[in-house]
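User: Hey, quick favor. My workstation is busy. Could you predict this chain's structure for me?
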Amino acid sequence: MDCINKDKNFHFIAIGGVGMSGLAKYLLEEGYSVSGSDISESKYFNKIKKLGAKVFLGHNEANLPQNSIVIASTAIKPNNPELQKAKKNNMKILHRSDLLKFIAENFQQNNGKFIGFSGTHGKTTTSGLAAYVMEKAGLNPSYVVGGIIPELDTNAKFSSGKFFTAELDESDGTILKYSPDIIVINNLETDHIDFYKNGLDSLLSTFSTFLSSLKNNAQILINKDCEGTQKLINNNPQTKFITYSINSQADYIAKDIVYDTNKTSFNIYKNNAFLCKLNISIPGKHNVYNALSVAAALIEAGIDIKEIADCFTTFTGMGRRYQQVAEFDNITIIDDYAHHPSEIAATLECAKSCNPQKHLIAIFQPHRYTRLNGLYNEFLNCFTNADKVIVLDTFAASETPINGHNSQEFANDLNKKLKKDVAKYIGGKISDVIPAISKELLPGDLAITLGAGDVTKVGNALAEFRSKYN
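Assistant: No problem, here it is.
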């Protein structure tokens, strides 16, 4: 980056996370020195280590090299010893969003085009799909996305191509820092209530501010079918939006949609003129929106859709997005990052429609106390497609417990809501609840682990438990 000398070292606090590791990988490939620490090893931690970063297990002020720029996220507590040392020694400290901003601006200054993906849901899938399609089409893109692209086995890459794509997070308002040439707004719903105190109104206000700060020639693509994004359109009549839809008139429309078990096809029209047929290998209505938004963004970037349409076909989804992780005793385990009521409802609807003969079990781990409490009624309404719901203890993330609803209460209230004994609470650490979960699974079941926390470990742990004790 032009604004930071190459003799500086970038030190990442919590380098093993999927987002931080992507930024670290990008810098390493661009030729910067990188170090970092985390409380435990992970596949991301080890990947960065293999790429040449100096990494440390545990947070300790001794880990922090001199002449470092420290990268931290909102989740890092003020009492972190490495952060305290950086402050004491007047080292430069950047939020992870500041680093992504510098990366993007540097790319734009070198005549590259920055494509950003935003919204409450679908950011990781759309940014990953865009990166994948451009990679497969030989466009040699640069990217930093919020998950592993399975076919590419990476979440970031520095390259010399014309395009840079990234997932732009709105959860803490840091989206205001970016100025992409093309921005996609997938959808907008109430979430992150710890930050957006007035719910959707606060979120819409942030996005209105974001829109007003963009360059005059920025291209703004937006989902016309979402209530939240429609409100954003109405709130900003002076803004020129490029709309996409599957239900109504828009600049880009998906028509003639055909859903199959593991694939979907549809025709894309621009201004009512047929462009091409798109085949995707990721099921569900929400993925039609995802693929349509990516296709529209790449077309607006000047890429010939007919030249890249086939590249969509082989994309099988992002890591932790409806990803099969285990199969044993004629039981299939799918893992999904869904942790918002709308995401859970979409995932379960997709699973039920694709597997109508299966007994569908949702293994739900609420993510953050504020989300469970703030969207409690919405959560009670999103499990209608599940035949059984196993409710685990809330994954705290960076939060401390608050007074309010808990997982056991949620299971009881869900049974009352659905008027049948469908939900069961199983409390304890993931390592401790596997035997109890195993008892709930029968041959022929399709189980989906849902949540942004360590519920992702359940599938493999169940497979290991069954192989050990069967």
